[in-house]
Specification:
Length: about 1000
């Protein structure tokens, strides 16, 4: 067989690089075997497309569930299975790759009359999104498909080939999009020069290509591309339209309405009218919900003050949460038995709304039975303090505690807690539980959890609130459920830095609030989702959530300050320094406190010159944040921010504060605030050392941040990135130190570290047998930091240093042939052939026995661990890659970095993770969180893993590295040599350059 024949599968799948198309088509003309095989594949592909279209279930589109990315020839119910670890799966929608090739082997024999590569246009359009090809963008009313998807149309061949010859990649991509093959469209758009037109079409393709994997992620990616296009050309018609659709499907209706308004102003025939209709509908529906909430809220406000106020019975059925809040206050403030009993119909209405119990009815009858000679004056004072918004005097709180009027006591302490004033939490939770009302039991559990967090026992708090959520759902107390989801979101973000779990709770809380019309909670969860997106570095989505929250309450000054200081943070993250400064100037002009995020941005902006009022604003903000009893990690972070700011004004004072922050933070490695303080202080000090040429100090500081107790005297590289500043320091084989410091970065780090180490420093390391790399976050874990001919590894220290056992002692654990859950649709990976010779230490975990719990247990005493399975990286599920294993009895099948980190690997194993993307890490600037780092923290001595998808042959690559290590090579040398040998034999296997060693 000719070597070119092996390219046919790649050509069919659309994986053959475009530069090889012409040569392969020429081969196809002369190769009989390929021609026959190609003809068979073409027939099979077309038959498959027809079968899939016929098998598609009928799908009704409704006005309530828009499908902006629907295309004419994409069967609605067909789901593409996840790609396997090896060669990408065949797509039944990939006939275009075959059809294009026919031109080279006799397309003239297939007469076509259509002069364009897409079907003739109908009176209406079935794709709501807009494409930029002029022939496709003429206005036609949108009419979504209301039956099964139509059969795919045959496409003209000559025109497609002509477009390829002319490198009309955008036109070809449009043809692919209309045929339903968005992945091929993305491939061709990737060859087109960047432009707003290409960006707009690419956003449509991104949404289509990923719709089966994660709608949220698809919309996030599309939004990034569209905002880049609109930044280049703000009046781009198609990008503006598609931008509005993305915002609408992110459920941000007010922003979407504004975007449709921008389209309407362009005055395009047809498009402008449809845009105005969309804008009006979105705005009216959304604001109507807001008015309904505000009216219901207003109907509750007179219950405390007016004894003849209307009882909001109708509102109780529609918005029981806020009405129940007001009901409790009305009961507390009622000065007489009759005033309490008047509330009985409202109690019954609320009981019905919450599932038909008698809890609130019992509350009214119990309070009505109290002695109002004693209770009446206390109730009147309660109403006075609440309406006045003033703190409850200590004497009054003590009188309530002694009175036995526990509902009044709980209400007063609740207001004090909400205002952030010191409260006897133990007394509050005892009194709340004593009321016998699940509403207050849930509040008590939340406050117990808050105290546990303050005591550093977050795991107890987590378990407590998760159990409270189960109780809440059983009692149908949706308002309280949303409140608990908000608490969990805040804890996962602020205390534990676990945005994946935070996203789950923020999303569930948002859906609860929307489904029950709780407008105020909706706004709160928009801000929570913005913070989650910020932690995941999804800047446009985070910004959109914030701007939507402000659009719902544009006149609220507190909202204004919160949104703009967070928008400043996002602009800074995206290297839009002037925009960040503008947002902070708005905050400072409003005299609003900048808060912790705003203080951090002020410290960052200090490197770009003074800002009027910044020093005073920062001083006030830090002073406010230091009030009360901040924990050590919080104090360290505040000192780090202040030190970073002072470093630009008084270097000595700034360095002293930064060193103090480091010293304060290091004893608290499990505190998220302390880790952030350590990262900020270290990055600032390392950059300052680089700026002044103190390269040895920079090496020491990088080692200190990574807990490397002794920085090597030779063959070591330190790389640090602090936003716009980059420092690389090399110590070569002679021990000589050289470095390079720059402060000209204009974009965040990408998916690899190429270019961070200048050629001169690479050359300084070439005489080394191996190079240890000290790279604090966010560089740690990025591939391609050094060329493939250099043996190198990321060095990470251990919190509990010790002497690892010899590599030839202990068990050799191999996890392979894993029975992943059938529902995932993951193909079984090929069996791994055992290495030659006997291996008495080899222990296998296979099939349905390879569950997460069994793998974790077996790893504890292993000296070597190989895991051959599928890997998945999904920010919605975890902040690091997941290993897909066999399901437990409860269905759990994923092995996560947090599970690994929670164990101790006493055998100090050498770990091989032969899974797709097992080394991928979330882009956190203050900590490296990945599977390899988790294994090292658990006790592994070295970990090999890839940051990208890897083929089925990867198992052989990892096994060859292992054999080289057993033959005596150092792990870094073994990896380098096998990589070189592999690339020499298979130059196209570039994935081997993305296999990393951590030790």
């Amino acid at each position: 067989m000719n070597a070119l024949c092996t390219r046919l599968p790649a050509f069919v799948d659309g994986e053959l690089p475009l530069e090889h198309h012409e040569g392969f088509r020429a081969h196809l003309v002369s190769c009989v075997a390929c021609g026959v095989r190609f003809h068979d594949l073409l027939q099979a592909d077309i038959l498959g497309r027809l079968a899939l279209a016929k098998a598609a279930s009928p799908h009704e589109a409704t006005a309530d569930s828009p499908a902006p990315w629907s295309v004419p020839f994409e069967p609605a119910e067909v789901r593409v299975p996840p790609p396997r670890r090896g060669r990408p799966h065949w797509s039944h929608l990939g006939a275009l790759a075959l059809v294009l090739a026919l031109v080279g082997i006799g397309a003239a024999r297939v007469p076509r009359e259509a002069p364009t590569p897409w079907p003739s246009l109908q009176a209406t359009r079935s794709m709501e999104a807009r494409l930029t090809t002029a022939a496709l963008d003429g206005y036609r009313p949108y009419a979504p498909l209301r039956g099964g998807a139509p059969l795919p149309a045959l496409l003209p061949l000559r025109e497609l080939a002509r477009m390829e010859d002319q490198q009309d990649w955008r036109g070809i991509a449009s043809a692919y999009l209309l045929s339903g093959d968005a992945r091929q469209a993305l491939s061709y758009l990737g060859n087109a020069p960047a432009s707003p037109d290409v960006g707009s079409d690419r956003a449509v393709a991104l949404a289509l290509a990923h719709a089966d994997a994660s709608e949220q992620r698809a919309l996030n990616e599309a939004l990034v591309v569209l905002e880049d296009a609109l930044r280049d050309r703000p009046d781009h018609p198609q990008a503006l339209w598609n931008h509005a659709l993305v915002l609408r499907n992110l459920d941000l209706p007010l922003l979407a309405a504004d975007a449709f308004d921008a389209v309407a102003k362009l005055g395009e025939p047809g498009w402008s009218a449809e845009a105005r209709t969309h804008a009006r509908g979105l705005r009216e529906q959304t604001l109507a919900r807001g008015r309904a909430w505000k009216q219901a809220f207003a109907a509750t406000q007179d219950l405390m003050a007016d004894p003849n106020a209307r009882l909001p019975l109708e509102e109780a059925s529609r918005l029981p949460g806020i009405v129940r809040l007001a009901f409790y206050d009305a009961v507390r403030a009622a000065p007489s038995k009759d005033a309490v009993l008047r509330l009985l119909p409202l109690a019954d209405a609320l009981d019905r709304a919450h599932g038909g119990g008698r809890v609130l009815h019992a509350t009214v009858t119990r309070v009505a039975a109290r002695d109002f000679q004693k209770r009446g004056p206390l109730a009147r004072d309660y109403a006075r303090f609440v309406r006045g918004g003033s703190p409850f005097p200590p004497a009054y709180l003590e009188a309530l505690r002694r009175s036995g009027e526990d509902d009044l006591y709980v209400g007063a302490l609740g207001y004090e807690l909400k205002a952030g004033r010191p409260v006897d939490v133990a007394a509050f939770v005892r009194a709340a539980d004593g009321l016998g009302d699940p509403w207050f039991h849930l509040i008590a559990e939340r406050e117990r959890a808050q105290q546990e967090v303050r005591d550093g026992q977050w795991w107890k708090a987590e378990a407590r609130v998760l159990e409270a959520l189960r109780t809440c759902e059983a009692e149908r107390l949706d308002y309280r459920c949303a409140d608990l989801h908000q608490w969990m979101t805040d804890m996962y973000l602020s205390e534990l830095h676990r945005p994946a779990e935070a996203h789950e709770h923020a999303l569930r809380g948002w859906r609860l609030a929307k489904s029950h019309g709780e407008w105020q909670q909706e706004r709160t969860f928009l801000q929570e989702l913005a913070q989650v997106a910020r932690f995941h570095h999804v800047v446009p989505t985070a910004s959109a959530y914030l701007r939507e929250s402000l659009a719902r309450m544009p006149d609220d000054s507190t909202q204004f300050g919160y949104v703009h200081r967070n928008l400043a943070t996002l602009a800074w993250m995206d290297f839009r320094v002037d925009e960040a400064r503008q947002h902070m100037e708005l905050v400072l002009e409003s005299s609003l406190p900048p808060g912790l995020n705003g203080a951090g941005v002020l410290a960052d902006l200090a490197r770009f010159g003074p800002m009027p009022g910044a020093a005073d604003a920062l001083s006030r903000a830090l002073s406010d944040l230091r009030q009360g009893q901040p924990r050590p990690g919080e104090r360290a972070l505040l000192d780090a921010i202040q030190g970073e700011f002072e470093l630009e004004r008084d270097r000595t004072a700034g360095r002293a504060l930064l060193q103090s922050a480091l010293t304060q933070a290091e004893p608290w490695p499990d505190d998220a605030y302390a880790r952030r303080a350590k990262a900020r202080a270290s990055a600032a000090l390392i950059s300052d050392a680089g700026r002044t040429g103190a390269f040895v100090e920079a090496l020491t500081l990088a080692g200190r941040q990574l807990q490397v107790l002794e920085v090597p005297e030779r063959c070591v590289l330190a790389v640090s990135v602090q936003h716009e500043r980059t420092l690389a320091v090399a110590r070569g084989p002679s021990g000589a130190v050289s470095g390079e410091f720059t402060q000209t970065r204009t974009a965040p780090l990408g998916q690899d570290a190429s270019g961070l180490v200048p050629p001169a420093l690479q050359d300084a390391l070439r005489g080394c047998d191996e190079v240890q790399v000290l790279a604090p976050p966010p560089v740690n874990g990025l591939p391609r930091l050094l060329p493939p001919d250099i043996a190198w590894s990321y060095r990470v220290g251990h919190a509990t240093p010790g002497h690892p056992p010899r590599g030839d002692s202990g068990r050799h654990l191999v996890v392979t042939n894993v029975d992943t859950p059938a529902a995932l649709g993951l193909p079984r990976l090929p069996s791994m052939a055992p290495p030659p010779g006997e291996d008495a230490r080899r222990a296998m975990l296979e099939g349905d026995q390879a569950t997460p719990s069994r793998v974790l247990k077996a790893m504890v005493t292993a000296a070597e661990v190989e895991i051959h399975t599928h890997g998945v990286f999904s920010p919605e599920l975890s902040d690091a890659s997941l290993l897909m294993l066999a399901p437990e009895q409860d269905g759990q099948y994923a092995l996560t970095a947090r599970q690994v980190r929670a164990h101790r690997l006493f055998g100090a194993p050498l770990v091989f993770l032969a899974a797709c993307g097992a080394a991928r890490t979330a882009p956190f600037p203050h900590e490296s969180f990945s599977l390899p780092v988790a294994f090292l923290e658990a006790g592994a001595r070295a970990v090999l893993a890839a940051t990208v998808d890897i083929p089925d042959t990867a198992g052989r690559f990892f096994n060859n590295v292992r054999e080289r290590i057993h033959a005596g090579a150092a792990p870094a040398v073994a990896l380098r040599d096998e990589r070189q040998a592999w690339l020499q034999a298979s130059p196209g296997d570039r994935w081997v350059q993305d296999v990393l060693l951590f030790q």
